[in-house]
Design a protein that fits this description.
The protein has 304 residues and is mostly helical. 77% of the residues lie in helices and 0% in strands. The protein contains 13 helices and no strands. Helix 1 runs antiparallel to helix 2, helix 1 runs antiparallel to helix 11 and helix 6 packs antiparallel against helix 10. It is globular, with a radius of gyration of 20 Å.
């Protein structure tokens, strides 16, 4: 239930918000949504650790649930649809005459048959999946294995989410300046690979370096936002939401695999050396993401 709600929340915020802007601002809008999501994670991890010292998990989660109800009510009263032209209303009505499930499967099939969408989803999945694995699970554990306290390890993970908050908006600005989606994605993934390799195999305990490395991991993970932009620009307008959902789904599938798989190679009481032997899969996945970015076709429609 948490995963389903999160999927609607993230993609819904980016897609619905993007409806209020012209197509050129669609990527930037998604970047802003990711920025606020990342800031929530950055603030949330240390804040949750602090709140758990004065309340139970049950009370904390009940508070989150109550806030969600208030947010839903506020959304229903405040958010409205943009005014559509008669032609847009007619097109929307014509596009939604069939069975809902069949319509969803048909749209998904059209997206998966689009080579650019698949490559965009894979490069975004490699980038964000690695960030998710580091920011949620392996970051604190590796830092604790290096000798950091649990609280300081949480702060370092928050640094990665702060980096992502900056990178999610910056990457689209760079992409627009370069008039390219492909090469910012390639360079961003290469730099993220270097940052993740330093996170895993870098100095055992150097606080200042750890902060910089974790910021870099998040900053270059902002590259995954180009996956949404590329996918959205290579499908008809009616499929933009579905293409965004495909990219988002692949991001979380890869993130889930990168959180679960390394644990199979770890002993019950892992050391830093054990983590280094098990987490090689993250730079490897990012290297695959680089190849996917290189395979993208740069077309005039993908630029701007």
């Amino acid at each position: 239930m948490l995963a389903v709600g999160s999927s609607f929340g993230f993609v819904g915020a980016g897609y619905v918000g993007g409806k209020w802007f012209e197509a050129a601002k669609y990527g930037l809008m998604f970047g802003l949504v990711q920025m606020f999501a990342s800031l929530g994670s950055a603030v949330g991890q240390p804040a949750i650790s602090a709140m758990l010292s004065i309340m139970s998990w049950k009370r904390l989660l009940a508070g989150f649930g109550a806030f969600g109800v208030l947010l839903t009510v506020a959304f229903a009263f405040i958010v409205r649809n943009p005014v559509s032209t008669p032609q847009e209303q007619a097109e929307a009505a014509a596009a939604h005459r069939g069975n809902v499930i069949g319509e969803i499967l048909s749209d998904l099939g059209r997206c998966f048959r689009n080579r650019q969408v698949v490559l965009a989803a894979l490069l975004a999945g490699a980038s964000f999946g690695t960030m998710l694995a580091v920011g949620v699970l392996w970051g604190p554990r590796v830092q604790e294995a290096r000798g950091a306290s649990a609280r300081y390890a949480a702060v370092l993970s928050a640094m990665a989410w702060l980096g992502l908050a900056a990178g999610a908006t910056l990457v689209n600005v760079v992409s627009n300046r370069w008039h390219s989606r492909k090469w910012p994605a390639v360079y961003g993934l290469v730099l993220q690979t270097v940052a993740v390799a330093l996170f895993i195999y870098g100095p055992a305990k150097t606080p200042g370096v750890s902060i910089v490395v974790m910021l870099a991991v998040g900053l270059f993970a902002g590259t995954h936002m180009l996956g949404f932009t590329i996918a959205g620009k290579t499908v008809p307008a009616a499929l933009i939401g579905t293409a965004s959902a495909v990219v988002n789904g692949i991001c979380f599938i890869i993130g889930g695999v990168l959180q679960a798989l390394p644990s199979r190679w770890l002993p019950d009481q892992p050391t830093l050396t054990d983590y280094r032997h098990a987490l090689w899969i993250m730079p490897a996945v990012l290297a695959v993401g680089v190849l996917c970015a290189l395979a993208l076709r740069e077309r005039p429609r993908d630029r701007g």
